[in-house]
Design goal:
Elements: H1 10-13, H2 16-24, H3 31-41, E1 46-49, H4 56-69, E2 80-83, H5 87-104, E3 110-113, H6 119-127, E4 132-135, H7 137-144, H8 149-153, E5 158-161, H9 164-167, H10 171-186, E6 191-196, H11 203-208, E7 221-224, E8 232-235, H12 253-262, E9 266-269, H13 273-286, E10 293-296, H14 302-313, E11 319-322, E12 337-341, H15 347-354, E13 366-370, H16 374-388, H17 402-415, H18 420-427, H19 438-450, E14 464-466, E15 472-474, H20 477-486, E16 495-500, E17 518-523, H21 524-527, E18 535-538, E19 541-549, E20 552-557, E21 563-564, H22 577-588, H23 598-610, E22 619-626, E23 629-634, H24 640-656, E24 661-666, E25 671-675, H25 684-687, H26 695-702, H27 705-717, H28 732-749, H29 754-765, H30 770-780, E26 784-788, H31 796-807, H32 814-829
The chain binds one DNA strand through helix 6, helix 7, helix 13, helix 20 and helix 32.
DNA sequence: GACCTGCTGCGGGATG
């Protein structure tokens, strides 16, 4: 492998001690490792893009190890900072780095620092740091917001940023970029190494890694590791009937079990926690061979998850059913099959998940995609094609979040007084904030100093004050303490603890129960649907709901078969634009239908006969009457979030047009709206005009609850509202109430408040997906195809099922749904 | 016999 090495080079790159360590293991320096060393020698920052495995982490650390080995004795100071999005990775790397350090015989200290590190150790690390510190973005922010920051970091030579693709573009990534900017100020000799999975466009990552100049832009060197073997991806299309709707993949559990039996170790990825619970439960029912299969998701108690991870590490498991919790993390060499249950949602996410299998360079990772319904078959096929062609989702760079900027300004004042001009220049050296106008920075600064003019009367919002010399300093030590309690960008929903126990005390007398072992957490809204005696699935067990005591949901184990499926309200996994365009391409092009399973082909052919198959960039709009209601169904294939926004805005227009709309239902692929009047005579071009993104949108948002929730997150991150902390008597509801109050006050009295702007930006990028909706509307202008029908069309059946599920009172009543499906299918065939 | 939706990540520190 590799190119011929220049015989004059090797000595210059790797010192003899290192070379013989490589030799002793039968390793050769890989090309990308050499390139990182050469970049470091030239004092250049670099982005290393490579698939998992292949010594990427070692490549990031090699230059630091070499430099530290050449350092004069007795000179110890923080040399290299490693940042990972996961605490577990920091701890794992600590273990892994110690091997080469010991074996080469280097005098280098390595320590991890996370929220789990003992506070005495954290304190000591400020004054006597190790040579290499392994940590998280939040910890760096905390270290920087301390008077000791300058001493600690002034000698820093290198920052290694692991899994950078997973941080960039998020608020955590924004926070980290601002911290980098401060580090560049404190340690001008600093270079960075970014480690990233393969991305569609590395440029934003390369910019992220170096200080941006006032004019133009700068980027780190790009080093591309050799791609491994293309993964072997298959889409499961058995003989079974492919469901018309639903997302559980239940019809395929038998085949999933067989696949697990046929592999050494399998990761079964699901898209939701409830899907993971259901899948796990059903696999155990099928598990005649008693295979050790485990469950892992984010609402399970941490200790339980750690037991599963340890069992995996020890080779004791055949499969784990999991959610995105295992998208990243410690490599498990034994995994040789990845199953993705349900729609893959995006090519990059899929590649990341597939990469969890088989880290040997010369063998392909094996992956099996299991579509749960007909539309998902299209999505799985589109995703497989993208992976086969080596294509990924492109994600544009978006400007840094303003609430994060406010938090950072506050933190910087905790370290030492700053001059606004200097801090502005520093902040704009961070790539996400390179385009930040001074005027916006000044408003953020003013917010940290006063809360904004609507809040000026409230003393508690005054966090920094101006000194006579023009510099800003923290107001008092308490305010600095408050910063430390509120640092970070992750905001959680208030949750209940699920614990074993009964109401009424252990001895049967009334009184306080002593709750037992904690199994995990559940959200208030699901809890509120339970009445004592109900049974539900959680942590892989059937539990009986006993009652609520304070923030504990008390449960006992049960053997009931009548189980409710718990659900959580996480933010929505968006279907990537890239993948939705590819799904459209398949549907639009009958020449490509041959690769689809027979049932799906028949479905599309039937659609062509009974209604219409749109051409690229056309939007098909069907109307038909059913059960005394008129339905309008359109198929943008643009993801549920954009369809949700479109549905809201269309409904408002239909209302004005006198159609008396009754409801709408978005799916990933389509949108249905139903109403009392027949819409087929409407001017569709006017209905779908781009101008709906103007006043209609503003009207709707004015009183949208979602907007308040978004604002709450921004207000917490910016430090306007305190987080919940153990010991503080402030429930989640009280926090959101006060956030709602502040939101209303600001909307009325200070509509240009920085946090309203921050919330609007979040909403536009998040629950509204404005960019996507805008692209959708402009794509279809002049390409609407209206098809008034007598009956429901084949494409519409799954959408109608989805709508039926949501509108049937009392949740999904199976008998009614089955009946609905029968009716729809016979009407469709009519 | 179907059918059950929405992810993850982190987190004071000085003093007794």
């Amino acid at each position: 492998m590799g190119r011929m090495l220049d015989p004059s080079l090797p000595d210059a790159v790797l010192p003899p001690r290192f070379q013989s360590w490589f030799d002793g293991r039968g390793w050769r320096l890989r090309d990308h490792q050499r390139a990182v060393l050469e970049a470091a020698r030239a004092e250049a920052s670099a982005l290393l893009v490579a698939p998992t495995g292949g010594g990427k982490t070692l490549a990031g650390f090699l230059p630091s190890l070499v430099e530290l080995s050449e350092r004069p004795k007795n000179q110890r100071s923080l040399h290299t900072l490693y940042v990972s999005p996961l605490k577990a990775l920091a701890v794992d790397i600590e273990r892994n780095l110690k091997t080469p350090i010991e074996e080469i015989g280097l005098d280098i200290q390595v320590e991890a620092r996370t929220g789990d590190t003992k506070s005495s150790v954290r304190q000591r690390q400020r004054t006597r740091p190790p040579d290499i510190l392994l940590t998280t973005p939040e910890q760096i922010a905390l270290l920087l917001a301390h008077p000791s920051a300058e001493d600690l970091f002034s000698g820093l030579r290198c920052v290694v940023l692991d899994e950078l693709h997973a941080l960039r573009g998020s608020k955590r990534g924004d926070l980290l970029s601002l911290d980098l900017a401060r580090l560049w100020t404190l340690a001008p000799a600093l270079r960075t190494v970014g480690l990233s999975a393969t991305v569609a466009d590395p440029l934003p990552l390369r910019r992220y890694l170096v200080p941006q100049p006032e004019e133009g832009s700068a980027e780190a060197a790009l080093i591309e590791g050799k791609g491994g073997v293309r993964p072997d991806v298959r889409v499961m299309t058995g003989e079974d009937r492919i469901p018309w709707s639903g997302h559980s993949g239940r019809h395929a559990f038998g085949a999933v079990y067989e696949a697990i039996k046929g592999a050494t170790t399998t990761l079964v990825f699901t898209n939701t926690r409830s899907q993971a619970e259901v899948c796990f439960q059903e696999l155990w029912k099928l598990n005649e061979d008693s295979l050790p299969i485990a469950l892992h998701h984010g609402s399970l108690e941490r200790a339980q998850r750690e037991r599963v991870e340890a069992a995996m590490q020890a080779g004791g498991l055949r499969a784990i059913v999991c959610t995105a919790t295992l998208d990243m993390g410690i490599d498990w060499g034994a995994v040789d099959l990845v199953i993705c249950l349900g729609a893959p949602k995006g090519a990059s996410r899929l590649v990341q998940r597939i990469g969890r299998a088989n880290h040997r360079m010369d063998e392909p990772s094996r992956a099996l995609l299991v579509p749960a319904n007909r539309f998902e078959v299209l999505e799985c096929v589109a995703a497989k094609e993208a992976v086969d062609a080596g294509l990924l989702d492109g994600e544009g760079a978006k400007p840094g979040a303003l609430d994060v900027l406010c938090q950072h300004i506050w933190g910087m004042a905790c370290a030492e007084p700053f001059h606004p001009d200097h801090l502005y220049r520093e902040v704009t050296s961070a790539a996400p904030y390179a385009g930040l106008p001074r005027e916006v920075f000044d408003r953020a600064l003013d917010f940290v100093a006063t809360g904004g003019y609507a809040m000026k009367a409230y003393d508690r919002y005054r966090r920094i004050v101006r000194q006579p010399d023009g510099r800003m300093r923290i107001r008092d030590p308490r305010t600095a303490q408050l910063y430390r309690l509120n640092a970070g960008t992750i905001v959680e929903m208030p949750v209940y603890n699920v614990r074993i126990g009964r109401l009424g005390g252990t001895d049967g007398k009334p009184g306080r129960a002593r709750p037992g072992r904690k199994l995990g957490t559940m959200e208030e809204w699901f809890t509120s649907q339970l009445t004592p005696g109900d049974t539900f699935l959680f942590a892989g067990e059937v539990l009986r709901f006993e009652g609520i005591q304070e923030t504990d949901v008390l449960v006992t184990k049960s053997r009931s078969d009548e189980v409710k499926i718990p659900s959580w309200q996480g933010s929505k996994f968006p279907l990537s634009s890239f993948l939705s365009a590819r799904v459209r391409d398949i549907v639009n092009d009958p020449a490509r239908w041959g690769q689809l399973p027979a049932q799906v082909q028949e479905w599309l052919h039937l659609q062509r006969r009974k209604s219409y198959v749109p051409k690229p960039d056309e939007l098909l709009i069907e109307t038909f009457e059913r059960a005394e209601k008129f339905h309008l169904v359109c198929y943008p294939f643009d993801g549920r979030i954009a369809h949700q926004s479109l549905g809201t805005l269309l409904t408002r227009r239909l209302e004005r047009a006198g159609m008396q709309p009754l409801g709408f239902c978005p799916t990933e692929y389509a949108l249905s709206v139903w109403m009392r009047r027949d819409p087929s005579g409407l001017d569709m071009d006017a209905l779908f005009d781009e101008d709906m993104l103007g006043d209609d949108l503003d009207d709707w948002l004015a009183d949208a609850q979602l907007m308040k929730r978004t604002f709450r997150n921004c207000a917490i991150i910016a430090g306007m509202i305190e987080r919940n902390h153990p010991g503080q008597e402030k429930s989640g509801r009280q926090v959101s109430f006060s956030a709602g109050l502040i939101y209303d006050v600001l909307r009325e009295h200070e509509p240009d408040h920085i946090l309203l702007q921050a919330a609007w930006n979040d909403a536009a990028a998040g629950f509204l997906d404005i960019r996507r909706l805008g692209a959708l509307l402009s794509r279809i202008q002049g390409h609407l195809v209206l098809k008034p029908l007598a009956h429901v069309s084949p494409l519409a059946v799954p959408v109608m099922m989805e709508a039926g599920r949501e509108t049937i009172i009392g949740g999904a009543n199976e008998a009614i749904l089955a009946e609905l499906q029968e009716e729809l299918l016979s009407e469709m065939m009519a």
